[in-house]
Amino acid sequence: MHVTPLQIYYEDTDLSGWVYHANYLRYFERAREHLLGPAELVRLWRDEGIGFVVYKCELSFREPAGLGDILEIRTAVRMESKYRAVFSQSVWRPEGKEAMVHGVVQLVCVDRQNRPVVLPATVRARIQPPD
């Protein structure tokens, strides 16, 4: 399980004072980037022409987050196939008893022409638990 800290700022909230629902997708993306390694993602695109696209995404909302909240994104990941990874992600209060928001995001690895390619070994190493 990978944990990414999250601070809620004024810019994250809508007229109601709660986090705007679409921002959770941004938070989940940031957590995935930290899990996979920003430098490695840049290297993969620059040197190998390999990137990621969202194949499928589902979100469930249980409790709103508001201005000033200190939260964390918890991410677990598994390989669905040699081309696709499934990220189970949730927003938690550090001492919370259940997730505030839960999402499942499926990513597919693609080349510069958006054709599916096998997940690179460096990515698989971060996703798959050691034997």
Protein topology:
Blueprint: E1 2-7, H1 23-36, H2 38-48, E2 51-61, E3 70-79, E4 84-92, E5 101-110, H3 121-127
Antiparallel strand pairs: 1-3, 2-5, 3-4, 4-5
Task: Provide structural commentary.
A hairpin with a 4-residue loop joins strand 3 (70-79) and strand 4. It is elongated, with a radius of gyration of 16 Å. It is an alpha+beta fold and 131 residues long. It has helices at residues 23-36, 38-48, 121-127, and strands at 2-7, 51-61, 70-79, 84-92, 101-110. The longest helix has 14 residues, at 23-36.
Compact description:
This protein is an alpha+beta fold. Helix content is 24%, strand content 35%. It has a single domain (2-127), classed as Hotdog Thioesterase (Thiol Ester Dehydrase, Chain A, Roll).
Which features would summarize this protein structure in a list?
131 residues, alpha+beta, Thiol Ester Dehydrase, Chain A, 3 helices, 35% strand, elongated
* Range of helix content: 10-25%
Instruction: Please list the strands of the largest sheet in the order they lie side by side.
Output: 1-3-4-5-2
SSE order, as H and E?
EHHEEEEH
Number of strands: 5
Mind telling me which CATH architecture this is?
Roll
Structural class: alpha+beta
CATH superfamily: Hotdog Thioesterase
* DSSP summary: helix tally: 3
Quickly count the domains: 1
Low-confidence stretches: none
- How many angstroms does the end-to-end distance come to? 16 Å
Shape: elongated
CATH topology: Thiol Ester Dehydrase, Chain A
Main sheet, how many strands, which sense, barrel? 5 strands, antiparallel
